[in-house]
């Protein structure tokens, strides 16, 4: 929900912090701030607005120094303004702290601190934490690190924090619980950030802090780096240093006007990468190591429960249809936020699949923990290597879609669908209930996907043209049946989250049960009719809409004539297997949402009120 970045070393810290904030801005962008130590002062600058507004504000300030912390915010407590922006500082301004997460018991802590004479300038939970650390340090006369340990032990909730102090101007203290934090180990320098994007250009050696761990990162006066990691019980931990797989080019727009468009166009490659090494067309087989290593768990599974949020939940619905069709295992798909709070019935022979692009979504992480506590085998489908959900699950398959920067998920969705179809195939193979020719059909169709996505992308110009007509529409309906129903939901989500136009996805047959009352000439209806199954039925649904002056935008298979004849606008996609059609049909839906939002002048990569990773509840 927020982005934090910190640096200690020999370089000038300001450019490192600001570039890091830009890299993290997709996580939250309603206010931003930095703190740099220099000449025995913690120099704090904070602004409402985007990182660019902060840069303008500090353009005439002294920002020299070699240690600093920086934060870009998505407000949880306290409105987005300069006062509530991070970094927050202690009463005597000798401590500064940035935080990503939510401190649930901050009101109780704040009341106690006020009783002890502490005053507060902001409405945030974060300020309570820095004041608590300062209060403990002064009252108990303990070291800063001990005060941090004691303060964090009192915190209920989630945090990823970076702390600096006037008394130790070459030391950063970072800690995490429930929110992600990555440490970069450079040459005589350390970085810490919410994810690896601010770190990758300085070092590929990283440590992912685990739950309730605290790291002290310091540079001696002689320039010698030192890192110490302990948990809240003060037990030392030997850090596991991993190599980052990410490269810098993935973090730039590469000539596209927006990350979202770049990521839409990356899909031929990301689908190829997500299938690479997992399908073999010559040997007519699939191989998902997570399934092979745990096949007993899957073979004895009475049911599979898929949990996720937003787009990941939509991908889960496609997975439900594919797994039930091929592997004949009952599947339930649950919103992670509902699953975690309804005391779900979970049995030891259940398999729970958690889908999350960021691997940090709080509700999905909580669902994973509950499923594990109740004895289920938990399998993750994530995009970010080393993310919290990836590390909390028993096993899993990475999506290999590369960093997804645009807040609206595009390449992650199609990669998730690809991995889920692979999983369905792999389970059917392990259960020996799929014959060679069916396997061959699907594998061949998967192999052809990148080329067919390229073909679908060629419709971009036509979609951009007719999107202009709908710039001022106020409502949309998206309809689909079977594998197209999850796609109707996903297409509606894409449109509403970047263009702010209200849009609803429905199973096409549901129209008669109410929504058809909405149809008139002002209601554009997007119909996904690109599969043979139930074709006649969806044709009737289109006729019902036309009879009420609804305007039809249809996604059809190449060569279609009947639906096209009834449509005001139609986009053709290449034919493919029904369970893979969501990957192809999603392309025009992503482009339609993108072009309407651009026409409306919306901030496509950073839509209002949203953040890329919802790491708070
Ligand atoms: C999708 O476009 C949205 N950005 C959002 O619904 C997202 O899919 C959801 O927050 C889940 O995120 P995750 O996949 O990282 O868990």
Plain-language structure description:
- This protein is α/β, with parallel strands linked by helices and 617 residues long.
- It is 36% helix and 24% strand.
- It has 21 helices and 27 strands.
- The strands form 5 sheets. The chain has an 8-stranded antiparallel β-sheet. The protein has a 7-stranded antiparallel β-sheet with strand order 5-6-7-8-12-13-14.
- A hairpin with a 5-residue loop joins strand 5 and strand 6 (95-103).
- Helix 10 (310-327) packs parallel to helix 14 (411-430).
- The N and C termini lie close together (10 Å).
- The relative contact order is 0.09.
- The model has no long low-confidence stretch (mean pLDDT 94).
- 2-deoxy-2-amino glucitol-6-phosphate binds at residues 309-312, 356-358, 361, 364, 407-409, 493, 497, 613-614.
- 2-deoxy-2-amino glucitol-6-phosphate is lined by residues 309-312, 356-358, 361, 364, 407-409, 493, 497, 613-614.
